[in-house]
Structures
1.
Amino acid sequence: MLVPDAPMASALNRRLDQPHFGPFAIPPRRLAARRREQAEDRLAFLEIIETTDLNWKETSYVVGNILQCWEYLGTAEAVLDYDQFATKATHTAVDCIAEMDTTSTRLTEYSIDADTSVAVVGFKQLTELERSILPPDYETVDPFTEESFDHPPFRILDSPAAIVDIVLDTVTPENAEGVAVVLDAASQYSSLIESALEAADIPYYGGPGFTDDARHRAFLQLLRSAHTGRDTRVGDVRPLLTQLGMPIDIEHDEKRLFDLDRSEVDWLHEFRDEIRSSTFEEAIDAYEGVTDTTIDAFRDELSTLGLLDEAVTEQAVDRLEFYLQSYEVPVDRENEGVLLADAKSAAHVDRAVVFYFGLDEGWTHSSPRRPWVDRGQEFERNIRQFQLLLQNGVDQYYLVQDTAGGTPVTPCLYFEELIDEEFDRFSDLNSLQHSRAFRTTQDGFEREPLDVSPEDVTALSQSSLNTYVNSPRDYFFSRLVDNPDKEHFKEGNLFHDFAEFYVSHPDAISTDTLDEVAAAILDEVDPFLRGVDREVRLTKYRVGLQTIVEFLDANPPQGDGLTTPDSGWGENFFAEYYDQPIDTSHTERWFENTDLGLKGKIDLVHSPTRLLDYKSGSKKSAYSIVKHSSLDPPSDKPNFQALLYLAHQRTERPDEELRFTFFHFLETLDDVVTGDGSLEDCLTTVTYYPVTYEGYIARRDTFTELQEDAANDCNKTFSKVEYEEYSEFLDVHEFPETRDKSELLDSMFARLLTEQMKESVGDYKYVKKGCKQALRHLLRIRNQNYFTGDVDVFEQFVRDRLSELNDRRAGDERFPVLGLGGDPNYRYVDNRDCILEGGSR
């Protein structure tokens, strides 16, 4: 009995109810070759690169065409009938392959005796080459019956991890032999299920290959890293550093590897310097020596490829990588446990319980675009394979996602041919929604109970508050996980240090020394930069420094500054550079206000009523600053810096008008280069008024603004009424709480104000328009400033957050992923890898 593939043959042979000499069911290739099928493409490739001068990529291309055409048309020379493929390289490869003892050669030369009784199962699944061995007379057996197959429901889960958990809930080491998992081998499911089974000590086979070995990956990365440019970052090769036993702190991840002055990587620097004059064998010896491991399989494969004694040039490493990406190197695997089957290779899985992962577009075959392939027949063959695959096992479980990353998952194309109903996604079909079940786990890490009470957090900085409001889970991980130094943080800190130093020692800096200072900053930031960026950055730093100097010269700090118990902490790069201490009460003032639960560091106390913060990023408007400090609901980009600092300063200067200024000293970079820079373009100020918003807009000064400083029709309208009328109207009618312009203009307050002005001034078009302009002007005041009510509400908001935070620290509840505004803004999440979407895990 001939069958399309080996798994089906094995399944039928295991079910014979009486002894049979030799195999009962067998695939054509095994019948002709009398051996297990081998990967012909790899063997042909190895033979050709050894016996001819063809380059590796060309060899791989022509070998693929020859074997594929042979399979479809029945002869090795068939590809030469197509002019566009009958190249000199193809002729050379055909001659070489014809001399090899391959399975396809044996299949071509083999034929079944005419008097042999033959039955063929799944004739349509056989290729032309496989059919060529059949005798004139044979029986065919259709693997499908006339009865329809009632497929099980699609079980919809929210993530690949949840799908893998379903298998782990079912499989044990004892029943693993009866379970199979069918998946797209190129999908994320493959690595997830392999690592999950390995962690649970459940045996499996059909899994990791030659290049999945961590030692092999590390050696290959070592070869590649030795040839990459000087811009390779530490984080890019961290897995390699781990394998080499070279621990480097995460703070260095974004720095250039080969400019890192750390003793831990001295060996790597030496290896890079010597690699171009070393052979692959010498490179393996060096790797095995430093890791105290052996990679004999890799050594053997390099010998097979003829690379072992070659120099480790970049071109040779390219060829090696191409080979390992193109061909699967045979490895010895444990053939026991859960079977992992590739959806595009398997048609039969002989297990009682079969889990199908994904069933999405990744399961759809890409038909070869070659003239010898009948794409219609190929599509039918693939659908039949898909149908067979879905019916394997006694129990089938279709485990799928309905959405991924917020986008609907498209079911495999073949379902459109097999299911007689309209659908776009799995939830449109017979399906069941499943929530993720929490599995009982082993003991995990050892824990030692401590009879101590958690320490309460008594104050929050603006950055911690921003992070906590966006995602409490991200805040939690920020307390536990270190993050690498960032280029922009390094730059910003150096600019801050310079500004602090200049306030204390303006005489130490001149126009001439700014070039030296810019060069010093460049040297400090250099490990983060590409070589081509240096000149541009030097100009940027020089302009930023000049802008800071010009501002401080024109606007020196006023008053006595601010003295706090913890002020003056930390180091200053330029104080050490010039060997002059910082001695001023205006710069880098640290405060911790436990009454309000606030803490922070003030860059510059510009005056008793004005605080200033240096910013190297792009400028934000006062409207944007106030908007992103909103509380109900919070912004999707929460930033409470100005509001937090003004709340603290209010305790120092109660009942005074206070200002907080952001000085974006790089904002006019382009303008300064062209000679058009202006300091005012660098500044954004928000003001705190020690009155309520309603009290502020009721002032005579605000009324005067409506008469003189607002839009034209507003000026014209309100110039015709007296302040007393305006004041009486506000006494009677409460200004709406909204900050939305449309809501304000559609409010009853707006209608009543317009009616009042029409009655007092006249029913003119400009009056109606002027009232709208007045409302917009008043709303701009609210949306660009802070008032007593805003700061009062913020102080209560902080108290609530601290209470909530300390409850969570005490273990009363977990730190949730969701922030106060719902889903966090992941652009501002620092520990993204630690956070799962779609739930509280």
2.
Amino acid sequence: MKSPEILVVSNNADTISTVKAVLEKDFRLAFTTPALVMEDIKKFHNLSGVLFELKGEKIEVVEQFTRLFLTYPRLKFLVLSSKEFYNSIDKEKRFGFWCLECNTLEAFREEVKQIEKYPVSTIEKIYLVDAAFARSPFAIAIIPNDDLNVALINRKHDEIIGYNKQEYAALGLNKNTHPDDVKREIEAEQLMKNLGENSFSIEKRIIKKDRTIAWVEQFTAIQKNENNGGFARIVITWDITNRKKIEEKLQESDRIKTSLLQNLQGMVFRCKGDPKWTMEFMSEGVIELTGYAPTDLINNHIIAYGDIIVRKYRPQLRREFKEAIKHKKQIRTEYEIIMKDGTTKWVFENAQAIYDEQGNFLAIEGLVIDIDHIKKIEKQLIYFQNFDQKLHIPNREFLTSKIQEKLDRNNFQGTLILVNLKESQKLYRSHGYQYVELLTTSLVSKLKQLETDKITLHYAEEDLYVYYAKYKMTKEEIRTFYAGLRRAIARTIIREQIRCGVGVIHLHRKINIAEVYLQKARVASEFIVHENRIMAIYLYDDDMDKVVQREDYLRKELLDVSFEPGHEDKLRLVFQPIFNLQTGAVSGFEALARFTSDKYGPISPLEFIPIVENNRIIMPFGKKIIDLAIQFIKDLSALGIDNCPVSINISVSQLLDTNFAGDFFLRIESAGISPSLINVEVTETIFSTNHEQLNEALTELNEYGIETAIDDFGTGFSSLERLEKLHFTTVKMDRIFVETIDNKEKKACIVPEIINICKKFNIKSLAEGIETEEQYNTLKFLGCDFGQGYYMSRPLEVKDAKAFIIKSRKAK
């Protein structure tokens, strides 16, 4: 029959020797250290128990004991403690503890023989841990599933945290963290999860119950319980307020490195300071740090410490050490070492030369700690800072810093090509977020195909992408590159009907700020001359700035008109009569906005309406238009004309705004006019919008009594088949179809087709842009219901429009 197997966890050679002498005959013994126990215990499957030496209450030992305890809840423990610690434990709680100094070795052997019979209930386990942690010099909390009500908290916790257990449970986990440190704490835990680790450390301030502020360092580990799916949060906290005060007095500049130096595990050493860094002493931490035992490195027995430093760092380190010894300076440096298994690791060294009483150099003493995980975090943070996380391409900050470095060296060789796909944002409304995100990913994938070793793609901002060429591209190279760009994305942007402007600018001596180049490249990309082109490229020139300055000035004026009182005179409506083509009578008016700039005079709607829409002031601006139209209707009513509806143009964004209809109806009701006196016209770009949303909005207007018309029908996205699915009451044919009536082109056949389809679907037809008698008569003959145009009347000012309708009604 096999002897029981016992795992002994200790760093103490005397303890190991004693245990061997007493137990070796009766037990199969295995030995490990607290640092390696979590890995080594996996090798054993039939342990009778664990002897865990817990002396001195070092934080790393307590941490490993806690991990072992929580990970293997059914293990039988006998904790070997110091005499002082053992005697401090209440007698009823000494179960599971043993002091070799307080008892005979024979009694110890008998105690170990009973280890298999130890109970493993939760109560006994909690007593065991409670006793182990009661006299720890730091605060310890073991919190199952983050429930503070059932947490195990030691006595020191009350002193350091400043609340007793009940008060802290009522307050909430980490709720006493100083407000300025809350964000860092959340980010640290999130980073731990992102990196797939199970622990993190943080220095922070806490606010105690008496409102005093203390600095603490807090180690948090999340230990999952594979048996029940739960977890335990292990929080070890120690007060570093005094140390912080010392740091402040010394004006310590490198706080993070100091914190690592004083608190993280590492290797304490003493070396001769020779070119090989010959070691005279090394602590046990060298094993975890390098993989080598102290005896391997001391006196260069197996290998010199200098030889495990990565070669490229050695010359600089030797210079630093020589300078530090000469001038009696502290050595603080980072470098990489080659571990025993061949991998590399970043370490931080803090050392100081020591001298005898006569000032003669003796040796260098210091501490080397592992900062490999810090370097990984730094690397990841650099990636986060310089790359877009969704598209995985360099971002604007990375690009501008790279260009700025070049400009600062008076190097002006380079070309920027900015691809502007801002129109894709309109697809969010019609297709949804997920569709647009997938489309963006697809487009970026196509854009990346054009990258070379000298031309790289960058993310400037949403839907703006910049190619950066490290040299000045020739016209022919730009032409060839643009052709490739068209081949890459033209099919997609044509399918989605999103225009793409491409702006080009070369680096030159007149501009030495990187960000300015991006701004001007964007200006060029937005300099769309040919509105019907789906894609165009422009090379930046100074004349473009004048256009931008004009647009910026108009934008400010339009903002004033939309929001500020006292600018009403800049915006007015003119009214073009709409005629019943079958009777010749005036059936209503279309209200057309007119804007006059203080600086530039009258501005075409084709210029100011896009500015209003692109700057997202269409809602307040549109309300001004509605109010002016309602006032005109009230003026007509005062003249006794109560059956002359006015049509106003509404944008897609207005129509689909959730507050639009309610606000619109309120204005109509407040004015005391009938909803039937207002018609709404929406441009046919509405066809690119989600049909379900569109119909809901149209139905709401129709049910309220407002007729709706589709404006400029036939110029873009529309099709006759879609009319049946949408709840419009009127279709306005664009003037380009009316113009063909005179010259008898083949397009003229579209007009009767549109009229017939309207009759089929019981929709009214209206032709705009009627300028000749022939057009008028032809449309009347074809059965078109309504029409407007210069042949009948130009748009009229308010006064003239009133006179026109009065005269028209009298003639009738």
